[in-house]
Write a structure and sequence with these properties.
The structure is a single chain. With 553 residues, the chain is an alpha+beta fold. The protein is 35% helix and 18% strand. The chain has a nine-stranded mixed sheet, with helices on one face. Strands 10-11-14-12-13 form a five-stranded mixed sheet, with helices on both faces. Strands 15-17-16-19-18 form a five-stranded mixed sheet. The N and C termini lie far apart (65 Å). The mean pLDDT is 89. The structure holds adenosine-5'-diphosphate and magnesium ion. Adenosine-5'-diphosphate binds next to helix 2 and helix 3.
Length: 553
Amino acid sequence: VKNVKKYEFKAEVKKLLDILVHSLYTSREIFLRELISNASDALDKLRFEQNKGTEIVNNELPLEIRITFDEKKKILTISDTGIGMTHDEVIANIGTIAKSGTEEFAKMLAEVKGDVGNIIGKFGVGFYSVFMVAKEVTIKTKSFKKDEPAVEWKSDGLGDYEITEIEEKINRGTSIIIQLKDDAEEFAQKWKLESIIKKHSNFISFPIYLENEKINTVTAIWREPKSSIKKEQYDEFYKFLTYDNDPPMDIIHKSVDAPIQFNALLFIPKKSNDLFFYDRENYGLDLYVRRVLIQHKNKDLLPEYLSFVKGVVDSEDLPLNISRETLQENVIFTKIASSVTSNILSHLQEKAKNDKEGYNEFWKEHGKIFKLGYMDFANHDKYVELLRFNSSKCKDENELISFSDYVERIKEGQKEIYYIVGANRSALLLDPHLEIFKNKDLEVLFLYDPVDEFVIQAIRKYKDYEIKSVQNVDLKKINEFKDVVEKKQETEPLSKDDQKHFYSLLSKMKSILGDKVEDVVESKRLVDSPSCLVSKDETISSQMKKILKMTNQ
Ligand code: ADP
Ligand code: MG
């Protein structure tokens, strides 16, 4: 045999392979989705090089994916005319886990143990998933670059792989040849392959031929008129895009013509993926120029606080050969990005107005991320209107109000919006700071999330109303409001004798508490409780101090 070289898989690859090989049968079919998606990526990259005018081997070949099978021999082959790989690229791309996502995924898989099958389908597991069904895999690949020899890679997925230079002449692109495991023979059957391709890969933008018959749709659904698309097609596309099993919560389909032309098809997922660190890193919108994919998961089209939004953006007005590195400096691109943001915010405004319940659902799922938008000064007014809070006047912890709801029922003469910070509603309802506000019938916003306080500190005001912590209010102002319930008994002024006892009690407390407090004083705010802690510092509340202490600042 000519120049065969053996290599060992890196330790982390072995670990991942071990998990995949032993994973549940139900999720095995997604290996085909992964291989087709790699073929499609390779074709996208090739088209990108063509648009740049690069010299390309076999430039005349059509850009397509071909799948063939041999039912008797249990062999399945997936071929593309994409970018291909050189000898060194095969080692770099296939032999190691290059993308951090796969590493994260492997960690997560190891953590969840039991339910592996359920999780695999939701993530882009990558090339190695082929070993769920393969006894042996051969890759034959020829790079688009001139004078690079074709290469063969072969492995049983156990510990090592071997690489050989191919001497015979083969065309540009990559073929993955799979010798199926005995119990995976169904993946060499036409009906099975056809149904898997339809289910997972229908929206791939290059033709997929199964034994010479085209299987997929190949339409850029985002460029079709809204009226021609059924809900099921949107849902199907969403699933194709996100691997999410639930249909989306909302669909935003926009066609903008002026001043810059673009189409956007955006989705708000039903469930937040906040739990998965893996997915949080993975956000972004797919950017197309005239139906040609320029970049998967572009992060500059969306501000981070809208990172829960999934989808695609396609523009006629960007050059096809635009490089990803210079996108951010492109004026047209940045205008598209800001228009995408304002379209999403307008959608949310509409939703908040017309579907209050739906908006509250949205808030409970995605509010945690959305709140981080307090840095988006350009959209400040819209952002502030979209915030939601629980408050002392809500009937339970599920009810939410906006600043505008608060102001609509504000007390006559009230110039401030009040808030209190705490772990949960039942704790806050018992908080002594709240007593006087209850007694004066003043509404107080309840902030449960540590981030809320940063949000409030950043926005400071809603319209002309200053937003103030109940710990830092001017009690004189509060006391000007009428009591709802008359005090049970008018407290009589203390007698000289009692006064002496009272002040000596205060100074005793002070000496016991020592450095822990600034002062111990008579309270004008309490109604039922004997004592409470108040903050002297105007800007930092006790809750915020706890956070700062936690983070050692
Ligand atoms: P990902 O696709 O997320 O990068 P994969 O594990 O699926 O991760 O693939 C790893 C890498 O192998 C790809 O990034 C690509 O460089 C290379 N690769 C896989 N399949 C092909 C193919 N059909 N053509 C060219 N390169 C490929
Ligand atoms: Mg892949």
